[in-house]
Amino acid sequence: MRWRGLGAFLLTAAASAGTPMLVRADPVQILAAGSLRGVVTDLAAAANAVSIEIRSDFGGSGLLRERIEKGEKADLFLSADLASPRKLQALGRTALPVVAFARNRMCVVSRRSAGVTEKNLVDRLLATGVRVKTSAPIADPSGDYAWTIFDRIEAARPGAGAKLKEKAQANMTVTAPSSAPGQSAAAALFAADLVDMSITYCSASVDLEKEIPGLASIEVPPELDPHPMYGIAVLSDRPEVLRLAVFLLSEEGQALVARNGLVPLSATDGPQTP
């Protein structure tokens, strides 16, 4: 289903439901990947202008998907991957086919003094004593994307990918003892000198550099980057829910995606379905 076809379908469904535009309905419950916090905040502001209230909760997409599978009520699931929404679709939990609405890039964050470049990236990751941090695979797609990077490194340098997975697993449960008010968990790890290099979404690396002076990020080389794709699972046929899904695929919604550091689909091939 292409972009215009999906948008027309959703708009027609919303209109046919007959809910007056300015009547405030029950809040729309959104479960969203942590990397979409800014997107959902801006979406809530836009929705409020047309009397749609949003309530949201954030976490790793895999964990959120499990919560939905266990019966937690939600209207929209905004995931940092397509696999989690597609699993819900396969279980018959979605009101519409899963569709992508944004992309991301993967970045490596380290201290600027370490001199990490695209050319020496793999060597610096492999260096003895360098502590590499990723999210946990399955629970958080960011971890799965990091493992994909390691697999691609393994294909080019046998043994290197396996070593990187061992490094990442050794630091998987490392947490900072405390963080300053408003400081992210990732920033707290660098502040406490518990990590040397972190593989994360590029959309998150900008704020991380602002939080901790002296950090720098580089994009993972294109041949190693899995180019994360974000998906929507529409879990309710309420008209206000459908309108929000349409909005994210609209020109204005894609601009909102770009403002929050993600890559709008208008900059690639347009929305995709399974």
Overall pLDDT score:
89
Radius of gyration: 20 Å
Instruction: Note the gap between the termini.
Output: 9 Å
In total, the number of strands is 10
Order of helices and strands: HEHEHEHEEHEHHHEHEEHHE
Fraction of residues in β-strands:
15-25%
What is the CATH top level name of the largest domain? Alpha Beta
Helix content: 40-55%
Describe the main β-sheet briefly.
Answer: 6 strands, mixed
Which regions have little confidence, pLDDT < 50, spanning 5+ residues?
Answer: 1-22, 269-274
Shape: globular
Alpha plus pi helix count: 11
What would you say this structure looks like, in words?
This protein is of the alpha/beta class and 274 residues long. The protein folds into 2 domains: 3-103 and 229-267, D-Maltodextrin-Binding Protein, domain 2; 106-219, D-Maltodextrin-Binding Protein, domain 2 (3-Layer(aba) Sandwich), CATH 3.40.190. It is 41% helix and 17% strand. It has 11 helices and 10 strands. The strands form 2 sheets. The protein has a 6-stranded mixed β-sheet, sandwiched between helices. Helix 2 links the parallel strand 1 and strand 2 (54-59). Helix 1 (3-16) packs antiparallel against helix 10 (239-249) and helix 10 crosses helix 11 (251-259). It is globular. It starts with a helix and ends in a 10-residue tail after the last strand. The relative contact order is 0.21. The model is unreliable at 1-22 and 269-274 (pLDDT under 50).
